[in-house]
C-alpha cells in the first residue's frame, strides 16, 4: 500500500487518538519542569514484525515537532525481544505525553503484521494470495490494511466504494445472480464485480452473468477443487476464484492447494494481538 495516498487519513487518525488521550492537557506531565529534556528508547518485549512507523512519526509531529524520532528498524523487519525499535530526543513532557498514542499504533499494527506474516508462511509456494476483509478496528481501516501488506498478505477492497462484493442478501434483494451482476456493471463500469456462491449451480450462473471474481463460500476442499477445474475449463482463466468461510490455520494449506486464486480471512485484522512494547527514559 502506498501511504503517500493516505497522508490525510494518518493525520486524522492520529489527531483523534491524541484528542481522546490528552484531552484538555496532560496534567501528569506538568509535574516535570518544562525545560527538562529527555532521551528515551522504545523496545519490543517479544518477537514481532514491525509496522506503523508513519503513525508514530505523526504522533510526535503533532505533539511536538521538535522531538527527534530516530528509527533503528524498518517496517516489515522481524525484531527480537529487548531490541531497540526507535529512540526519542526532546522535551521530557512531550515524550511522555506522546508515548501511549505512539505505542498504541505501533503495537496494534505490528500485531497485525506479525499475524499476517504467520498466515503467509503457511501458504508459501502455493501461489495463492491471502486477502483481508472489512473486519477492521473502527477508524483504523487504512492502518490495518497497510499492516496486512507489511505482513505479506494482500488487501481486498478497502470499503464499500471501490469494488462490488455481492453476497447472499444482495442477490436475493436484486432478484438473482444475473440481475445483480448485470446491474453492477451498469452502475459502475470498470469496477471489479465479485459475487458469492454456495453451490456449483450458482457458480455456473455467476460465470454466465459475467462476474470477474467468484467467492466460493463454505465449499469443502473436494468441491473447491472441482469448482477450480470447472471454472478454468469454462473461462480459460478469465474468472478468478476466492475461497472463504471458516478457514483457519489448520485447514488453510489444504484450501490453498485446491488451486484457488485467493483466500479471504477475517482473522488477519479481527483477531490480531497487540505486540508488547515498552518505553524507557535513559541518561
Your description of this structure?
The chain has 283 residues and is α/β, with parallel strands linked by helices. It has 10 helices and 12 strands. The strands form 3 sheets. The chain has a 6-stranded parallel beta sheet with strand order 6-11-10-9-8-7. Strand 10 (240-244), helix 9 (252-256) and strand 11 form a beta-alpha-beta unit. Helix 2 runs antiparallel to helix 3 (92-122) and helix 7 runs parallel beside helix 8.
Secondary structure class reads alpha/beta
Overall geometry comes to: elongated
What is the share of helical residues? 40-55%
Mean model confidence by pLDDT:
96
**How are the strands of the biggest sheet laid out side by side?**
6-11-10-9-8-7
Main features:
19% strand, alpha/beta, 10 helices, 283 residues, 6-stranded parallel β-sheet, 4-stranded antiparallel β-sheet
What's the topology here?
Layout lengths: L6 H16 L14 E8 L3 E2 L3 H11 L4 E4 L6 E2 L4 E8 H31 L6 E3 L9 H10 L13 E3 L1 H7 L2 H11 L5 E5 L2 H10 L3 E5 L3 H15 L4 E5 L7 H5 L5 E3 L2 H4 L6 E6 L1
